[in-house]
């Protein structure tokens, strides 16, 4: 007879095992880690073990991210900067490989050619936005080489448009047709990801960029940048933005994104408890987006959901 039971299967859902204070302390104390004193390492490990576990962050994840942040070939942070920024970035699931790719897109002389100091902050900022490195390069090519903006303006505009998500081909075509850069930007922003991407406005509901433009008028761009992106659950039971679907799935991204269940995103508030977007809105009111952006990210409700297993 077929028996059915319900279980939360961590391996099946891709959830990380708990990180122990002992292994954290060992890494924090190590000269190849944070290089803290034994007492400092112990205190920090006891403080951080619970939240890192809730976020699904392992010591291996922390080490991989630290390697990119500390590398002189990439972010090149000092030990003091690492101690301050490593764990907050890890708890927001900054992917080391994506960070490296973004750094390369910004620093390469064949791309934006930013200074190393500006790359340090901008690569982290754009990776938080889940911006696409290939799109960054393509936007700069259009703005600098096709539209012929001065280099500094092309760099600045590229950084803004990449954070928002902007279709380079649509930008070029719209500008050629209108010779109005602001109008072309507005059109290309709407065209990005075929208009499928949504972000959460101040009311805690998700809207497309076209809807932001309609509601906020001339203020739409800053409101869009401040708004957290909608995520959907992929077949690995993890939640991703539309841009992450495209980076991973390539040409088949859109059908997979549409088929994905909208994720109920969860973060840890200042009181140490876990809340979804609606609860952040209820408590923090109009400042919820800023609080959300700084908060540690835990797996979504659907990512946590028990999966039916048939035996």
Write structural notes for this entry.
With 311 residues, this protein is mostly helical. It is globular, with a radius of gyration of 21 Å. A hairpin with a 5-residue loop joins β2 and β3 (206-208). The chain has helices spanning 10-13, 21-29, 38-55, 59-70, 79-90, 96-107, 116-128, 133-146, 151-164, 168-178, 181-191, 209-216, 220-226, 242-249, 253-259, 277-284, 288-294, 301-304, and strands at residues 4-7, 198-200, 206-208, 232-233, 239-240, 261-262, 266-268, 274-276, 297-298, 307-310. α6 packs across α7, α8 (133-146) runs antiparallel to α9 (151-164) and α8 runs parallel beside α10 (168-178). It is built from 18 helices and 10 strands.
Radius of gyration: 21 Å
List the secondary-structure elements in sequence, H or E.
EHHHHHHHHHHHEEHHEEHHEEEHHEHE
Q: Bin the helical content.
A: 55-70%
Low-confidence runs of at least 5 consecutive residues: 1-16, 306-311
Separate helix tally: 18
In percent terms, what proportion of residues is strand?
5-15%
Alpha-carbon distance between the termini?
A: 9 Å
How would you sum up the global shape?
Answer: globular
Summarize model confidence as the mean pLDDT. Answer: 92
Q: Tell me about the largest β-sheet.
A: 3 strands, antiparallel
Sequence of strands across the biggest β-sheet:
5-4-6
Fill in the keyword field for this structure:
311 residues; mainly alpha; 3-stranded antiparallel β-sheet; 18 helices; globular; disordered N terminus; disordered C terminus
What's the SSE blueprint?
Blueprint: E1 4-7, H1 10-13, H2 21-29, H3 38-55, H4 59-70, H5 79-90, H6 96-107, H7 116-128, H8 133-146, H9 151-164, H10 168-178, H11 181-191, E2 198-200, E3 206-208, H12 209-216, H13 220-226, E4 232-233, E5 239-240, H14 242-249, H15 253-259, E6 261-262, E7 266-268, E8 274-276, H16 277-284, H17 288-294, E9 297-298, H18 301-304, E10 307-310
Antiparallel strand pairs: 1-10, 2-3, 4-5, 4-6, 7-8, 7-9
Helix pairs in contact: 2-3, 4-5, 4-6, 6-7, 6-8, 8-9, 8-10, 10-11, 12-13, 14-15, 16-17
């Amino acid at each position: 007879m077929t028996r059915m039971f319900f279980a939360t299967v961590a391996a099946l859902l891709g959830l990380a095992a708990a990180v122990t204070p002992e292994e954290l302390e060992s890494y924090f104390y190590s000269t190849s880690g944070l290089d803290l004193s034994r007492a400092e390492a112990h205190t920090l490990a006891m403080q951080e073990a619970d939240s890192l576990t809730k976020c699904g962050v392992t010591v291996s994840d922390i080490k991989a991210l630290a390697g990119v942040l500390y590398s002189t070939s990439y972010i090149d942070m000092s030990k003091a900067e690492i101690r301050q920024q490593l764990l907050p970035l890890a708890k927001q699931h900054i992917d080391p490989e994506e960070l490296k790719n973004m750094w390369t897109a910004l620093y390469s002389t064949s791309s934006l050619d930013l200074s190393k100091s500006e790359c340090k902050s901008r690569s982290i900022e754009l990776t938080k936005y889940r911006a696409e490195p290939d799109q960054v390069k393509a936007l700069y090519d259009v703005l600098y080489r096709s539209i012929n903006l001065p280099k500094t303006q092309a760099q600045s505009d590229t950084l803004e448009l990449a954070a928002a998500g902007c279709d380079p081909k649509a930008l070029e075509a719209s500008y050629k047709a209108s010779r109005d850069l602001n109008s072309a930007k507005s059109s290309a922003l709407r065209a990005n990801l075929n208009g499928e991407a949504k972000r959460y406005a101040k009311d805690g509901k998700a809207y497309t960029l076209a809807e932001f433009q309609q509601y906020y008028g001339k203020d739409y761009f800053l409101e869009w940048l401040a708004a957290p992106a909608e995520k959907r659950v992929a077949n690995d039971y993890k939640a991703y933005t539309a841009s992450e679907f495209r980076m991973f799935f390539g040409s088949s991204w859109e059908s997979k994104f549409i088929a994905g269940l909208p994720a109920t995103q969860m973060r840890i508030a200042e009181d140490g408890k876990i809340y979804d977007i609606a609860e952040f809105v209820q408590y923090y009111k109009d400042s919820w987006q800023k609080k959300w952006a700084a908060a540690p990210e835990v797996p979504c409700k659907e990512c946590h959901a028990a999966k039916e297993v048939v035996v």
